[in-house]
Fold this protein.
Amino acid sequence: MTRIRRRGDAAFDRSVNAFLITVLLVTLLPLVYVVSVSLTPLGETNTLLPLRVSLNAYAELLKQPALLRALGVSVFLTVTGVLLSMLLTVATAYPLSRADLPGRKFLTGMILFTFLFNAGLIPLYLVVRDLHLVDTYWALLLHGAVSVYNLLVMKNFFQNLPESLEEAAKIDGANDLQVLWHIVLPLSKPILLTVGLFYAVTQWNSFFEPLLYLSDSKMMPLPVVLRDILTGLNSADYVDAAATTTAPPDALKMAAVVLTTLPMLLVYPWIQRYFTSGTLSGGVKG
Amino acid sequence: MTRTLHALTVLVSLGSAVLGQAAAQSADLNVTLYAANPEAPAPGSGWETADLIRAASGANLKFTMIPTGADGDNKIGALAAANSLPDLFEIRNRTLFYQLIRQGQIAPVGPLLTLMPQRTRARYSSTTRNGLVNENGQMYGLQEPAALSRQYGIMVRQDWLDRLNLRAPTTLEDFLNVARAFTERDPDGNGRKDTYGYCGVIDFDNSGIFPSLGLGNHFQWIYGAYGVPGTWNYRNGTAFAANLRSPAYRQATEYVRKLVDARVMDPDWATMKRSDLRNRWQQGRCGMFFESVGGFNAGFKNFDANNPRGDATFIAAPTGPGNHRSMGTYANAGTLLVVSRKAMDAGKGQAIAKLLEWANSGPGYMQLVFGTKGLDYTLVKGVPTVTNRNATERLTDTQLKYLSLNGSTQELKARYATARYSDGRSVSLSDLLAFTQRRNNWIDRSGDLVVPAAPNQADIDRYVSESLVQFVLGQRPLNDSSWKSFQDGLNGLNFTAYEKNAAAALRANGYLK
C-alpha cells in the first residue's frame, strides 16, 4: 500500500514538474524569440536562436536622440513617481491601519468607493486642466499617485505588525512619527519593496496619460517614443526616399521591446526575495 | 454732429483694422497633425521653419503630433469635451468629425476659402470632394485630395519567372499556374520546398486604397477580376446593393478557395499580420505578394541582403472570366483639416488661411515637404534629392508636410527615388508607383466616405470576414445552400437597412443617380 502511494506520489511529482516546465517554456520561449529576433542581422531568417548575431538594431535605436531623451524622462518619472507614491501611500496606509484613528471606517470606505467607481476620462482631464497641470510632469505624477489596491495591501501589512512593538516604543518615549520611522518601516521592507515595484512598473509603462496630458514631444517618456518608432516601421507605406537601415525591420521592433522591458527585468531579481512575503503578508487580513 | 460721428466711425474702423492686423500678426496658432514621420520627434523651440511661418503668416506656431488610431481619437474627444481643441487640426475618424460638428466644436471653413485663393483653386474646388465635408449646407472641413493613393499592387519575383521560363500572369488562370510553379518547382534553387506562390493577409489598412467588406485589400484584385471590387455596386442605380449580393462575389470567393486548395498560398495567410508578410517576402519565401511601393522601399535592403539576385516588380491586375480587372478601389480624399470654433471666434481664421496658403506652393511647400534647401535636400534636374544629413533631423523638420503634400509628379519622384541593389542594379520606385497607379484599373469609390457606418458596423465586418474565411478555408462548404445561409445571416444583422442608408447617402451626395 505504502509502495503504491509512493509510486503515485512520484507520478504526481513528475506530472507537476512536466506541467511547470511547460508553463516555463510557454512563458520563456516568446521572450527568447524576441531577444533572438532583435539580434538578427540583415539577410538572416528569424529563428528561435540566431545563426549570426548583430547588435545593429540596438545601435540604430540608440542612435536616435529622441529615444535617449525619452529613456531619461522615463527614469526620472519612475524614480520621482515611486518616491512620491510611496510617501503618500505610507502616509495614508499607516494611520488607516491604526485602530484608534477617528473616522477610520468612513475614510476607508471613501477610499474604497473610488476603487469601485471612477469619474472617467473626461472629468479627469478637466480636473487636470483646471489645476493647470496640462503639459507638466505633475499631470503624470499626481494622477494616480496613490493606488487604492496598493494602499489596502500596505494597510493590511501594517495591521499585522504586533501592537506590542508600538506600545514598547511609546513607553520608551517615541511619538507616532518615530514609531513609523524607527519601528514600522524597517519591519515593512517586503511590502515597501513590493508596492514600490508595482508603482515603478505602472509609471515605467505609462503610455496613455503622457499622450493625453503632454503635447511637447520632448517631454514624452519611453513607451510613447517607442510606439512612434514602431508605428513608423509598421506604416511603411508612406516611407520616403533615403529610408535606410542596417537592421531588418523586425529586429528593430524586437530591440525596442527588449529596451523597454530590460530595466524592469534587471530590477526584479534584486527585490524578488522580498516579493513573495510582501504580497502574501499584505494580502492576509490580520 | 453727423460729421463727428462719421469721423469717429472711421477712426474706430481704422483702429479695429489695425488691431485685427496686429492680432493676426501675433496670433498663437496651435496646430495638431498626425505625425508625418512618427519615428522622429516633433520640432521644438528654435525651429527655423517656425520663423519662416511667422514671417509669412504672422502666426507663432505651436505644433503637436497626435497619435494614430483610438488613442488619437480619445485625445481629440477629451480636448473637445474640455473646449481645448487645437486651432487647426487633422482628423481621420469621420464619425468623430460629424460628432464634433453636432457638438458645435468645429467651425465652418467657407470664409477661409477666399483668403487662400491658390490653395482653394488647387485643392478645394471640387464640389464632389467638398461634399464629403458638408453638413446642413455648410463646409466644415478642408478636404485635401489624395496626395498618394493606389501605391499597392501584386509584386512578382521576376528572377523566379526567368529561372522557371515563365511569363508574368495576366489572367486568373495564369496566376494559379504561376503560383503553382513557384510553390512546387523550387524557384530559388535551394533544393527545399520552402516557397509559396502568393502571400497576402487579411488586412484592412487604408493607406492609399479603400478598405471594404470581405477579405481585405490583399484579395480585392480577385473580386476586381469578377467585376465586384469594393463594398458597393454603384453601377446599377435602381438595383443598388452591396457587391456581396452578386453571384460574381461568390465566384470570386470560390477562386480564393481554389488558391487555398491548391496550397499555393502561404498557409498562415488567415492569421498573419502585414509585418509577418513583409518579413516573408523579404526572406525570399513569396513568389507573388501584395505590397505597396513604400513597403517595398522599406524592406528593400533586407530583401536584397536575403536574395542576392532577387528582382521584384509589379504585374498588372489579372483579368477574370468576364474580362473584368481591377486591383481594387480607392478614395480621392486625403488629409482632412478642421478649424476649431474657438479659434475662429478668437479671430485666428486669417492666420490659419495665411499659413495654409504659404504651405500650398513655392518656398513654403518646399520647406515643409523637403526641409531646408542645401541642408536637407538639393535640386538634381529639378527634383529635390535628400542629402546625407542626419535622417532624424530631416524627418523632424518635415513633420508638417501633410499641410503641403500635393502628389505632383515632381513630389513623387523626390519621395520615391531609386533603390540600388548591392550588385549594381537599380530600380526606380517612382516608375513602380506610376505603373501600379496607372495599369491596374483602380476604381474611384470616394462616395463610400459619405456612407454612414451602421450602428453594428463591427459586427457586420466581422460576420462577413469570418464567413468568407470559413468558406475559403473549407471549414464551411461553398454551395448554394451555405451561400444562401450566409446571405440570410446578413438579414439578422440588419444589413438591408445599412444598404438603404448607403443608397440614400450616395444619392443625396450625387454619387448615385
In short: The mean pLDDT of chain B is 90. Chain B touches chain A through 55 residues (CB under 8 Å).
